[in-house]
Design goal:
mainly alpha, 224 residues, single chain, Four Helix Bundle (Hemerythrin (Met), subunit A)
Length: 224
């Protein structure tokens, strides 16, 4: 990373969400070490899968452990990206690996939440909890994929999420430990199964708008 790129990167830190700022501080010492962003992505993947496994029993204690593990996994997802930018070790393979890990963790975690809710409730719902988890997880995975596509087309700055008070939409996952602490995992699952597809529909609209805008800008004007 050149001195100019480093200056631009550091000076843009004030616009980052709070967890990304914290991640930048923590991974700073690793920028010149043997640790690569893919190492952190692998740790994030393993912690996320551990969170999914902890959700499966549906027990109150295990659900709280799972929620904490998922919050850590979500934070680590920022760490690998910040390390990639600080160290200049960004790569297309790393981005694809990161996206695949995000998608896998999200889908598996929400399916596991559905399994746990089904075990804990011991009752029949209009829609099986596992199906609710699958809907929520797949919708969120689609959001991740489309955001990556938008970023590829218009750059990271143009694809950046709107933040309020240093929080982005995806930071709602940090509230999961509160939901499990108050034993509201089922309510959160239902809310995710409804809200995630709606937000995914909005991201699809944004993606189509970006594609159409690019098509218009690249279409030569017709001669009269």
């Amino acid at each position: 990373m050149s001195e100019l790129q480093q200056f631009i990167y550091v000076s843009g830190g004030t616009r980052l969400p709070w967890d990304a700022r914290l991640a930048r501080r923590l991974v700073g010492p690793l920028s010149n070490s043997w640790v690569t962003p893919n190492h952190l992505t692998t740790v994030r993947l393993l912690v996320g899968l551990a969170a999914a496994a902890a959700f499966v029993p549906g027990a109150y204690v295990w659900s709280n452990v799972a929620a904490l593990l998922l919050a850590v996994s979500n934070f680590l997802d920022h760490c690998d990206g910040e390390l990639a930018r600080m160290s200049g070790k960004s790569s297309r393979v790393g981005r694809v690996y990161d996206l695949a890990s995000d998608a896998l963790v999200t889908v598996v975690v929400f399916i596991a939440i559905g399994v746990g809710v089904g075990v804990r409730l011991k009752m029949v719902l209009p829609v099986p909890p596992v199906l609710l988890g699958c809907i929520a997880g797949c919708a969120i995975a689609l959001i991740f994929y489309l955001r990556m596509q938008i970023e590829d087309r218009i750059g990271k700055a143009g694809a950046q999420q709107t933040s309020v008070g240093g929080f982005e939409t995806e930071d709602v996952l940090y509230l999961l430990p509160i939901a499990t602490l108050w034993d509201r995992t089922a309510s959160l699952l239902i809310a995710a199964a409804v809200g995630a597809p709606l937000y995914a529909a909005w991201v699809v609209f944004e993606y189509r708008r970006v594609v159409q805008r690019q098509q218009v800008s690249t279409t030569p004007e017709s001669c009269g």
